[in-house]
Specification:
Number of strands: 8
Order of helices and strands: EEHHHHHHEEHEHEHHEHHEHHHHHH
Organism: Paragonimus heterotremus
CATH topology of the largest domain: Fumarase C, Chain A, domain 2
Protein name: fumarate hydratase
Strand order of the largest sheet: 1-2
Enzyme class: lyase
Keywords: Lyase
CATH class of the largest domain: Mainly Alpha
Shape: elongated
CATH superfamily of the largest domain: Fumarase/aspartase (Central domain)
EC number: 4.2.1.2
CATH architecture of the largest domain: Up-down Bundle
Number of domains: 3
Helix content: 55-70%
Distance between the termini: 67 Å
Oligomer: single chain
Length: about 500
């Protein structure tokens, strides 16, 4: 293999050698050498890179408008930024998440790549102008405001374009089953013990309600994430920016995100309606730099969603246990063999995957909580770990929920024979008799049936508490499931 050719670049720390075919510069290379921490698994997430590039495209247009940079420089920067956020230069961003806590090295990585690409564009056109990573690409910005702004933009986009559509997809799949199973009477369970009758549709409908609440919670917190730190520069005062820059940046990124909604790599393969993201300047730039309350609150919403998903997955696994010696009420799609030693065994794998994802999202939230609490004076320096965990949660929820909807819920069936058998055997049907024979007599009836292995009906007849006809009139499981005569889907 031929030896890789090198070039020499220089910064305030001196000269350093780089491969001739790379677009990044000295600061990126120093970070790459100084922080070789899990670089194969923990690189700075590309959505952060793409968001930074989009922001720098908007900034270039604004800076050219106010004569802070040359028009030709701005045009070259814009073209280079688009190459970045369309994923054409992904290999130029090698840095680890485990770097400076402000994200400065990643910001400079983006600045250097954009300036290098912009200079290639200018040279190819025969122009003499050159683009500097700090003076032009980073004009009017500090890492301390542009990096948290990028954090908010990419999390907002991932949440709106991936997390929410996936949750809506799961709700739709569940609602189809709510309708399909709305009149299948089953025995409810509290404390894992038999309780009064309900329907399978009612049981599944509880999850749709919880998931709808999760979506509402996420949307409320998403509005906070759409408040951006841009314009605060180094400590929040706005030094080296100008009045109105923050609003123009927010207007520009709102427009650009909307335009990019169908080509931007964040979009992925999700389907469904997209909510409009409207970005606004943070009310207090000092708070936006030193704290990450908006992201923490959204992480809290993800955490709450994870608790719903965890219960959903585990309830499905429990209700499908068996097939011969468990509850066996739900029939999950048999997607793959379940055991390397037990032939014919099929496991609730989608449930297990979703429950593991839920646990990981809860863990990510704990990390974000700790990191958000460690802001020191005017700057929180745990930004990379916050954004890495937030984006991890976004992707986990999005992918796992979609898999669960498509590969588990959509093919869900019920074991009607087993469910009917449990209803007939349940002693908790006695609850319907309490208003007629009193709690104490009803309790004695249930105890007698249990001790003698009788159905409740047979025990009532044996104890001569009532005739078969009277029992059948008073104990009707469907009426018990719909005591107010309403059998509509809830």
């Amino acid at each position: 293999m031929p030896e890789r050719q090198l070039r020499v670049v220089e910064d305030s720390f001196g000269k350093i050698e780089l491969p001739t075919d790379c677009h990044y510069g000295a600061q990126t290379e120093r970070s790459r050498r100084n922080f070789p921490i899990c670089m194969d698994t923990d690189r700075m997430p590309l959505p952060v890179i793409y968001a930074l590039a989009m922001l720098k495209e908007v900034a270039a247009g604004i800076n050219a408008k106010y004569k802070r940079i040359d028009e030709l420089q701005a045009e070259a920067i814009v073209t280079a930024c688009r190459d970045v956020y369309l994923g054409k230069l992904d290999k130029e961003f090698p840095l680890s998440t485990w770097q400076t806590g402000s994200g400065t090295q990643t910001n400079m990585n983006v600045n250097e790549v954009i300036s290098h690409k912009a200079n290639e564009i200018l040279c190819a056109k025969g122009h003499q102008q050159r683009v500097h990573p700090n003076d032009h690409v980073n004009c009017g910005q500090s890492t301390n405001d542009i990096f948290p702004t990028a954090m908010h933009v990419c999390v907002a986009v991932e949440t709106a374009w991936k997390v929410l559509p996936s949750l809506e997809r799961l709700i739709e799949a569940l609602l189809n089953k709510v309708v399909e199973f709305q009149n299948i009477i089953k025995i409810g369970r509290t404390h894992l013990q038999d309780a009064v009758p309900m329907t399978v549709g009612q049981e599944l409908g509880a999850f749709t309600s919880q998931l709808n609440q999760s979506i509402s919670f996420i949307k409320r917190q998403l509005s906070c994430v759409c408040e951006l730190a841009i314009g605060g520069t180094a400590v929040g005062t706005g030094l080296n920016s100008f009045e109105g820059f923050d609003q123009e940046m927010c207007d520009g990124i709102t427009r650009l995100v909307k335009e990019a909604s169908h080509s931007y790599p964040f979009r992925g393969d999700q389907t469904g309606s997209l909510i409009d993201l409207i970005f606004v300047p943070a009310e207090n730039k000092f708070a936006a730099l030193s704290g990450h309350d908006g992201l923490l609150q959204l992480s809290s919403a993800f955490n709450a969603t994870a608790t719903v998903l965890f219960k959903l997955a585990n309830d499905f696994a429990l209700l499908s246990s068996g097939p011969s010696c468990g509850l066996g009420e739900l029939l999950l799609p048999p997607n793959e063999p379940g055991s390397s030693i037990m032939p014919g065994k099929v496991n609730p794998t989608q449930c297990e995957a979703l429950s593991m994802v839920a646990v990981q999202v809860m863990g990510n939230h704990f990390t974000v909580t700790l990191a958000a609490s460690h802001g020191q004076l005017q700057l929180n320096v745990y930004k990379p770990i916050i954004i890495a965990n937030m984006l991890h949660s976004c992707r986990l929820i999005s992918d796992a929920v979609r898999c669960f909807a498509d590969n588990c819920v959509s093919g869900l069936q019920v074991n009607s024979a087993q469910i009917g058998r449990y209803v007939r055997q349940s002693l908790m049907l006695v609850t319907a008799l309490s208003p007629h024979i009193g709690y104490d007599r009803a309790a004695c009836l249930a105890k007698h049936a249990h001790e003698h292995g009788l159905t409740l009906r047979d025990a009532a007849i044996q104890l001569q508490m009532m005739s078969p006809e009277e029992f059948d009139r008073l104990v009707q499981p469907k009426v018990m499931a719909f005591p107010f005569g309403d059998s509509s889907v809830v």
